[in-house]
């Protein structure tokens, strides 16, 4: 340890001894390369005596982040030597839900997700679509619907025109609609009235009612539901021309 090493010299004439502490240069302790266990040493500038001691390490644990690996850094404060061990992989991002990327459309649509830790992590991929072919009915056109299950974005193409009814003896052979049927006249009394709306409401409420569902898609959206009742009421109130 510093200060305890000594050197001496002997007078050539009187053989008197002089003892002094070793003196070390400005460099101080230097790490001993390839030492195991790790050590550092210093050399007396006067006598060449080498003082050595084991390195004494302090630990600094660096935790891994989403993008950077973690490790433990051991540093000898005396000689400055340091090494790392206990290395851990980066944690990776914790992704949120996929969302559609605005401005990307149809087959070129993309979705992205961002890291829930709000650390700038972001990943953008092409949507992956599954196809559903919806056939046309007599009065509503068909199409192919492409839906991305990840982000919910969908688009439609390959539209097929509605062929119209094919009446034989006053009845459509494809859907059973009557040629003289009036759209919305579900009780088949020859006119569209509040009575049709009541019948339709009772039908959707689950009651057994004898109605002609072939004329129930009043708003022509391809499905028969409460939207048709609403449309019928608005039609009766004069919002739209009766067809
Ligand atoms: Zn002497
Ligand atoms: Zn010395
Ligand atoms: Zn050291
Ligand atoms: Zn992240
Ligand atoms: Zn998508
Ligand atoms: Zn038809």
Walk me through the structure.
The protein has 243 residues and is mainly β. It has four domains: 6-55, no CATH class; 58-88, no CATH class; 99-160, no CATH class; 179-236, Orthogonal Bundle (Type 1 dockerin domain). The protein has helices spanning 194-204, 226-236; strands at residues 6-10, 17-21, 30-31, 39-43, 50-54, 57-62, 70-76, 82-88, 99-100, 110-114, 122-126, 129-134, 142-148, 154-160, 167-168, 171-172. The strands form six sheets. Strands 3-4-5 form a three-stranded antiparallel β-sheet, with no helix packed on it. Strands 6-7-8 form a three-stranded antiparallel β-sheet, with no helix packed on it. α1 runs antiparallel to α2 (226-236). The longest helix has 11 residues, at 194-204. It starts with 5 loop residues before the first strand and ends in a 7-residue tail after the last helix. The site of one zinc ion (ZN) has 8 residues, from loops.
Number of helices: 2
Poorly predicted regions are: none
Q: Structural class of the helix and strand makeup?
A: mainly beta
Total separate domains: 4
* Cα-to-Cα separation, first versus last residue: 107 Å
The count of DSSP E runs of length 2 or more, i.e. the number of strands, is 16
Helix content: under 10%
Write a compact overview of the structure shown:
The chain is mainly beta and 243 residues long. It contains 2 helices and 16 strands.
Topology:
Blueprint: E1 6-10, E2 17-21, E3 30-31, E4 39-43, E5 50-54, E6 57-62, E7 70-76, E8 82-88, E9 99-100, E10 110-114, E11 122-126, E12 129-134, E13 142-148, E14 154-160, E15 167-168, E16 171-172, H1 194-204, H2 226-236
Helix pairs in contact: 1-2
